[in-house]
Amino acid sequence: MKHDFQYIDESFADVQLLHYKVEGFDELTLQQKELIYYLSEAALYGRDILFDQNGKYNLRIRKMLEAIHMANGIDKETENYKALEVYLKRIWFSNGIHHHYSYEKFTPGFSADYLRSLIKMVDPINLPLEVGQDVDSFCDEIFPVIFDSTIDAKRVNQSESEDLLLTSASNYYDGVSQSEAEAFYQVQKDYSDKTPVMYGLNSRLVKENGILKEKVWKSGGLYSDAIDKILYWLKKAKTVAENEKQIAVIQKLIEFYETGNLKLFDEYSILWVDDVESHVDFNNGFIETYGDPLGYKASWESIVNFKDLVATYRTKIISENAQWFEDHSPVNSRFKKKEVKGVSAKVITAAILSGDLYPASAIGINLPNSDWIRSVHGSKSVTIGNLTEALKKAAHGNGFMKEFVYSQKELELIDKYNDLTNDLHTDLHECLGHGSGMILPSTDPDALKSYGATIEEARADLFGLYYMADSKLVDLNLLPDSEAYKAQYYTYMMNGLMTQLVRIDLGKELEEAHMRNRALIAYWVYEHGKENNVVEFVKKDSKTYVRINDYAALRSLFGDLLAEIQRIKSEGDYETAKRLVEKYAVKINPALHKEVKERYEKLNLTPYKGFVNPQYIAEWDSDGKLKDVKITYREGFTEQMLRYGKEYSILPPINK
Ligand code: ZN
Question: What's the predicted TM-score (pTM) here?
């Protein structure tokens, strides 16, 4: 079956939606398609978990707005209504009322009175009211959350002077202060335990009658309705798994969801890391901790995928040479792994995205996150080839590089090498960077606290940057020549020093760990190379540009910083982590920020991209056996959101 395929779907606010192509799906065996179908269902049923994790009012607000969207008799051509529609789409995109990247609460472009008038036109049976609640008291409860900019202003607050939990709107803690939560988890840590579970990963910490307790996300616990659906589909997936290893992986995940026991999650992770032969693979669970300012609680996400065998060649070569890279890094030998284990890597084709990977998605993933499992059993690292491809296709010729790159010389470098060097940097970051180095046995893995994520990302990025310029990559045929790395160095510095600011509102600071990491690296090497004019800002026609004068010196600065960042991580040097991040990675030069934003706005581009899933349609024969699974790309973002809201919204609007 042939499909008319278009990458670009719709745009609104600061986002653009893209379709991604699942190349190779039609060539899979029926059993593999069936497996993907079941795992996709398991993925989509978890979506509402993330909405609730991101804020306790999110599900009610979304369901209320969806009810308005479906109601009859509302004039949908007014400015007010169009503003409401954008607000709803932004909530869909961000899985809640806060921006997916900046964590700021959205400001609605319509009034409270207008919203109240619409709500009154909806049949109350379609509204997410509590038992006995009338429409007016519903509005009185919810409206401050929507309209008062001082309430739940941020999903994740990282300002170090404030109580990070009480000032964050995310729903991982209830009535618990930062010091109470830190103390709660501190006493659980046993430093003699060589295989500690990730404390607090799968629960909400609440205070009831003055006593702290965890409400665990599991079957029979919090989010049970969604988890039971996930379990139903995982059990079906198990019946069509590819091999014994994969059956064991799925079985262990089922047991984890049934019990909430984090030891079982570790056992699952070890089985999962070990399964490198299966063609189809997936994650489904509580994985990344970026949404918790303290880094304990994991947001729910899922991706189902299969191997892209051709593109996997590149990451295979990198992985096979992992020990060489570890041995030759500029890091102090005390902090190096004597034996780098099991850095498996592959390029995958995403088949479905959900939870914290949807619609905005990472393009490279390295899991599991448990430090001890990574060092004993290694990790699996993937680059998501078809998402990267969609991004490249959508960005081609949009005028961005022409506006911000200093001269024709750099533009030519970028044209010639950037697609390749970008992919390679992602591979180095994921396959080697995160897996490199080791923390000293006496160091608390959480010693860097709220700075830990930024330092970890900087470590992985620097590992990649340092090696981009190494002749080893040319020897391994991963780069065509010794000029190519310059494309990566230039775009990295331009982004870290300037252009990533297009994503930040004027007057705000950098918050997100990956953005902080890029600023940290770029400004640190800029400062430390100043004396020799390694990198400079130059003005041309009153516009600011980044110029790199000495690429070799830049590489050695990346090496110096890598050594220092690894030392900070290995020794758990909180004070230095804090000093570096606060000095280089938080504050923004307001004049430069304003200029970059203005130049960017003239290009009429959207800084954030997200993805629309394909739809899988199962065909059954008369005795209930699966005949085939068809893939279609016909559905647009809005239709998809409405369908998911109808078919997969299984959690109650309030989850206590
Ligand atoms: Zn990373």
Answer: 0.80
